[in-house]
Structure formats: structure tokens, C-alpha cells
Design a protein that fits this description.
By secondary structure, this protein is mainly alpha-helical. It has eleven helices and no strands. Helices cover 72% and strands 0% of the residues. Helix 1 crosses helix 4 and helix 6 packs across helix 11.
Length: 210
């Protein structure tokens, strides 16, 4: 192995160690109380080394989402694109269960993401891009909407994302909703399967006048 390759491997390991340390600290202590010094202390490196890899705390949190989740959120919504192409309520309900499982798998880091959105105005652009990426992952669904209503189609997807996230948070993290995920998947399908139908499809909303 050449010196250049060894250096690249060391950089890769250091980057991953910083991401893993930041994730552990964010999960244990929340986003706000963790500092760059805390992260570097966990890894045993300097602030200068940290800034070789990341621009700051917001950047490392964004990279945690991008690089450590076993399944990216956009991949989940690519699966929704397939389920809606199938067109059956059964396929959609299966997707709802899958989406709730995704939240469960990633539940530990989600509060840090919400906290960053609350305390870091600059993080809003990252949060917005993460939401936009979900509807971008559904080109088949968007193509079934008239061009002049595709913004509405994207908004419907964003509302679905919001309700799934809030249901999961209140049910599985806060414990303020007592309804099993299996039952919830059926009820959410009752609400969202017709709500996502493009105009002209069964269960679709009536187009606004004018």
C-alpha cells in the first residue's frame, strides 16, 4: 500500500470516527450542548483535524444523516413511488409499515435533527433540502399529475412526511398516543391512499374551481 493510499485510509477512518463520536454525543446529550471540542476530545484529534472534514457542528449532523443511516430517507420514498405505481391499497399499507420501521430504526438521532432546526437558522436550508429530496425521489408519481399541479403533488408528499413523523414521535418517543403501529398503518392508509391519488384517479380530490 502506497503512502498516499495510507494517508487516504487514515483520513477516511478519522472522518468516520468523528461522525460516530458526534452521533453518540448528539444521541446522549442532544444537539445544543455538544461542542466541536467535545467531538474532537472523544476521537483524540485536534479542532484543525475536525475542520479538515467538516465546516462545523451542523455539517457533521447533516453528514450523519447522509452517511450512517442504513437506508436513506430518499430510498424509502423511491419505494413509495413504486407502491403508488402498483396502485393497490395493500402495497401502500405495506409501505406505511416500512416507513414507520424506518423511523424506529433511526429514532435515536431524530431529536438532535429537530433540535438543530429549532436553534440553528442556517440549518433550515439543510432541512428543506432533505424534504425536497423525498418528492424528487418520486418522479413516476409526479409525472401522473398535471404540470400546473405538481407543486401541489409535492406538498401532499410533504404533508404525508410530516404526519408520519409526528405520529411516530408522539407514539414511540413521547408515548402520548397509544395506538399500535399495525393499527396506525391501516388508519393512515385510509387517510393517505386516496389523498395521494392524482387527479382523475379513484379517490382523488376534486380540482379547485377556476
Amino acid at each position: 500500500m502506497t503512502k498516499s493510499t495510507l494517508r487516504d485510509e487514515q483520513k477516511r477512518r478519522t472522518r468516520r470516527a468523528l461522525i460516530d463520536a458526534a452521533k453518540s454525543l448528539f444521541v446522549a446529550r442532544g444537539y445544543s450542548t455538544v461542542t466541536v471540542d467535545d467531538i474532537t476530545r472523544e476521537v483524540g484529534c485536534s479542532r484543525a483535524t475536525f475542520y479538515l472534514h467538516f465546516t462545523g457542528k451542523m455539517d457533521v449532523l447533516a453528514k450523519i444523516s447522509a452517511e450512517t443511516m442504513q437506508e436513506r430517507a430518499a430510498a424509502v420514498y423511491r419505494d413509495l413511488d413504486v407502491a403508488l405505481t402498483d396502485g393497490s391499497r395493500e402495497a401502500f399499507t405495506g409501505w406505511i409499515r416500512h416507513a414507520l420501521d424506518w423511523f424506529s430504526t433511526n429514532r435515536d438521532i431524530l431529536p438532535a435533527w429537530d433540535e438543530a432546526l429549532a436553534v440553528e437558522p442556517e440549518f433550515h436550508a439543510i432541512g428543506r433540502a432533505s424534504i425536497t429530496a423525498l418528492s424528487d425521489a418520486m418522479p413516476g408519481y409526479l409525472a401522473r399529475w398535471p404540470a400546473n399541479r405538481r407543486d401541489e403533488a409535492r406538498f401532499r408528499i410533504e404533508l404525508l412526511v410530516t404526519q408520519l413523523e409526528r405520529y411516530f414521535t408522539r407514539s414511540q418517543i413521547q408515548g402520548t398516543i397509544e395506538f399500535s403501529p399495525e393499527q396506525a398503518a391501516d388508519v393512515l392508509s385510509d387517510i393517505w391512499f386516496p389523498a395521494l391519488a392524482p387527479p382523475g384517479k379513484s379517490g382523488a380530490p376534486v380540482p379547485p374551481p377556476g
